[in-house]
Amino acid sequence: SYVLTQPPSVSVAPGKTAMITCGGTNFGTKSVSWYQQKPGQAPVLVIYFDSDRPSGIPDRFSGSISGTTATLTISRVEAGDEADYYCQEWNSDTDLYVFGTGTTVTVL
Amino acid sequence: QVQLQGSGPRLVKPSQTLSLTCNVSMSGGRYHWSWIRQPAGKGLEWIGRFHASGDTNLNPSLKSRVTMFGDTSKNQFFLNLRSVTAADTAVYYCVSRNGDPSFFDFWGQGILVTVSS
């Protein structure tokens, strides 16, 4: 079945930039969102509409799309950013949702 | 701020039906509610979505076993998953969205449901 492919893990030093990729088919007609999930907690929306941030999410979090790859960028990484991150696609043609395989971000 | 509280049996026997209820603090014509699950140590899987209009949309991989419906007068929506196996053991989240359906902005705390005899 169709999946969005993410790297299993990304390690980053505090203050540096983490980039998490999400590979799928052409995202042109689809909308991508990103979620942060800390252990034992429900996911939290950090990016929607490919690159918009909900209120309360720091501007250190940004999203972008290029062809078949969506990217979540976390700038000036902090210890509190350590979590699992999932991309999610909504296809407006099929009205179906798919999640990425998830990436664990470790802050060194 | 929408609040969601899921409830239901935490233990279900194989081949039986998993039934969950989500109580939501707000409802209305533009609300969508979804169920999303997550097996321990694994990723997220969208199960299906219920709209306040009564429309439902289900994950094709689960569609044959899932019924999803709601009662907006009581601010509740429901999930039934039939013929469960151990592979259905997961944390089940009820999730809501008001407006554009492309993402999920309010999540319940999650319910761990175990399928075991």
Structure in a nutshell:
Chain A has no helices and nine strands. Chain A is mostly beta strands. Chain A is globular.
Give the radius of gyration of chain A.
Answer: 13 Å
Give the % helix of chain A.
Answer: under 10%
- In terms of DSSP E residues, the strand content of chain B is over 45%
- Shape estimate of chain A: globular
What is the makeup of the main sheet of chain B? 7 strands, mixed
Write the layout of secondary structure elements.
The complex is a heterodimer of chains A (108) and B (117).
Chain A: E1 9-12, E2 18-23, E3 30-37, E4 44-47, E5 61-66, E6 69-74, E7 83-91, E8 96-99, E9 103-107
Parallel strand pairs in A: 1-9
Antiparallel strand pairs in A: 2-6, 3-4, 3-7, 5-6, 7-8, 7-9
Chain B: E1 4-7, E2 11-12, E3 18-24, E4 31-38, E5 45-51, E6 56-58, E7 66-71, E8 76-81, E9 90-98, E10 106-107, E11 111-115
Parallel strand pairs in B: 2-11
Antiparallel strand pairs in B: 1-3, 3-8, 4-5, 4-9, 5-6, 7-8, 9-10, 9-11
Describe what you observe in this structure.
The complex is a heterodimer of chains A (108) and B (117). Chain A has 108 residues and is mostly beta strands. Chain A contains no helices and 9 strands. In chain A, strands 1, 3, 4, 7, 8 and 9 form a 6-stranded mixed beta sheet that branches. A 3-stranded antiparallel beta sheet of chain A has the order 2-6-5, with no helix packed on it. The model of chain A has no long low-confidence stretch (mean pLDDT 94). With 117 residues, chain B is an all-beta fold. Chain B has strands at 4-7, 11-12, 18-24, 31-38, 45-51, 56-58, 66-71, 76-81, 90-98, 106-107, 111-115. In chain B, β4 (31-38) and β5 (45-51) form a beta hairpin. Chain B starts with a strand and ends with a strand. The A-B interface holds A 1, 31, 33, 35, 42-45, 48-49, 54, 86, 88, 90, 92, 95-102 and B 34, 43-46, 49, 57, 59-61, 93, 101-105, 107-110.
